[in-house]
Amino acid sequence: MVEPGKKATGDMGSLNGLNVTDVPRDPNNSYVSNGMDNVNKINRNNGVDGSGCHGGGDRLNDSGHVDGVDGVDGESGENAVAAEGEVDERAATALNVQDGPSKPSAPFQQPQVEAKPLSPDGQRRHDVGHQAAIIWGFVVLWLVLQVIGVVFAMLGHMPEKKTDAVVGTVSEPIAILVVLLACRKLYIDKSQGSRSMRFTIRLSSRKPMNWRMWLCLLIAMLAFAAVGDLFAQGFQGALDLLGWSQHSNGDEIDQMVNSSIFGLLSLGFVGPVTEELLMRGIVMPNLERYGRIFAIVTSALLFGFIHGDISQGFNAVLLGLVLGWMASEYSVAWSMSMHIFYNLVICEGVGRLFGMLAEPMQTVAQWTFDGVFFFVAIVLVVVNKDKIIAWYRRNRSPKHTYRGWRSPLFIFTLVAFLFFALTRISF
């Protein structure tokens, strides 16, 4: 054994850089050799081959040679020393040649790439497309529920007309509930994102509603309905000249209402509440950041698209403008009340009264009713033109805002509406 403080030297002096005193002792006063821990410093100029010092090096014999080392002893030391004093690559792998303790390498991390912010036009298209996607989600879910309801009704041998009324009454609330929950989840998860949108349904009124304002808005609704009736009559006349005919949604709604109480419930309550929650409760508030006018017009267009009928869709767009203004200035609860009153009292009540008249008188009564309210609406606009202009200037949208309608999904929604509307025309 080599005395402490002395260096082990071979015949070729190949291990003169290995200081035995640096090796810690065990309780039995023997040298501890444990692989990499028995060597603290190796002179790079000596070029020890890693294959010779990897497994042994724990004993030194009396002649100064290293025992238990594979391929390194006094006679074969020449093979362990590099010719020009460079460390062999295997030694650099087997031994840590740094003076200090080795540091564990940090785990590889994928570099984080930040998303490129959208341009103003791109952000508008993104938000408009997002609202169109919500509309499509509601429509698809509603259609799926309709199919499921019809299947169960057929298994129960329910009459066809009653089936449509019952299924329509049940499917709309379920569909809007699922959409509301999905939107709430998505908006909460993205509440910290740069593209986040808010989920708020304003049921409390922004300002008090008085009966004069409510009556003026009702007159506006009836005036726009008169314009819608005029368009429908002209469109039907054009189809008659071409020898074509249109299957209107209005006829199907009348059959559904006449079939059971569920049809009246769907038309007078379930439909208005569902449509207002979807259009004026979700879609419109998420577009108000671009101006109230843009939000009202865009939600009105989407409101018309989901009706699937050219005549009824045009009428829905006009009525959506009034309902949108009401929800924006007051609350969606007030737009619900107006929508319910219009469907129940005007469409169903007044419509049934006119239906009791003979055909010539029915047309005269309808045109007189529309003409009176249209004339009153024109008078109200002239009297309040300054207020209307001031409101328009306060709430008009910034320049190029309507480029948001270039959203691919918004355009697809328009094309799909036209396609389904054309399928109702018999050529």
End-to-end distance: 111 Å
Q: Tell me, rounded to a whole number, the average pLDDT.
A: 75
Order of the strands making up the biggest sheet: 1-2
Helix content: 55-70%
Q: Structural class, please?
A: mainly alpha
Let me know the largest β-sheet: 2 strands, antiparallel
Would you identify the regions where 5 or more consecutive residues have pLDDT less than 50? 1-100, 189-196
Contiguous helical run count: 13
Topology as a string of helices (H) and strands (E):
HEEHHHHEHHHHHHHHE
Secondary structure tally: strands = 4
Shape, principal axes of CA atoms = globular
Tell me which oligomeric state these chains represent.
single chain
Query: What Rg is obtained from the alpha carbons, in whole angstroms?
Result: 42 Å
